[in-house]
Structures are given as C-alpha cells and as structure tokens.
C-alpha cells in the first residue's frame, strides 16, 4: 500500500507514513517510527514526568 499526497505537516514532501493516532499523512521526517506517530502526536505523547499540573514556582 502506498500513501498518496503530501505530508500534512510540512506540506512539501510526499507523505510516506500515516500517524497511528490521528491518521495524519506524514513524510519520513515528520514520522516517529518508534512510536508510530506523526511529529505532532509524538510531541504530545512524550512522557512528561508528572508535569500535568503547572506548578508556578519562581525562585
Ligand atoms: Zn513533513
Ligand atoms: Zn498524529
């Protein structure tokens, strides 16, 4: 199966992969093969060490 169309992130390279989360077509540059996600989803899915709450601690 080949993916037709352009990468929906950079819109300049031919899409070669599809995000397993949002279905966005991405080029290889914007596809995290390890995670099977597009760059956007991969950035959101990054394991953040308990940083859900925004603690505003200023020193
Ligand atoms: Zn791209
Ligand atoms: Zn995605």
Structure keywords:
elongated, 14% strand, binds zinc ion, 59 residues, alpha+beta, two-stranded antiparallel ribbon, 10% helix, 4 strands, single chain, HIT zinc finger, 1 helix
Describe the protein's architecture and organization.
This is HIT zinc finger. By secondary structure, the chain is α+β, with helices and mostly antiparallel strands. It has a domain of 41 residues. It contains 1 helix and 4 strands, in the order ββββα. A two-stranded antiparallel ribbon has the order 1-2. A hairpin with a 6-residue loop joins strand 1 and strand 2. The protein starts with 16 loop residues before the first strand and ends in a 15-residue tail after the last helix. One zinc ion binds next to strand 4 and helix 1.
**Approximately how much beta-strand content do the residues carry?**
5-15%
- The SSE string, one letter per element, is EEEEH
> In DSSP terms, counting alpha (H) and pi (I) runs of 4 or more, how many helices?
1
SSE class: alpha+beta
Major sheet: size, sense and barrel closure? 2 strands, antiparallel
Heteromolecules bound: zinc ion
* Largest sheet: spatial strand order: 1-2
Protein name: HIT zinc finger
């Amino acid at each position: 199966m080949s993916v037709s169309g352009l990468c929906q992130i950079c819109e300049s390279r031919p899409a070669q992969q599809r995000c397993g989360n949002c279905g966005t077509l991405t080029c290889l540059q914007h596809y995290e093969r390890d995670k099977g996600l597009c760059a956007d989803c991969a950035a959101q899915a990054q394991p953040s060490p308990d940083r859900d709450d925004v603690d505003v601690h200023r020193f």
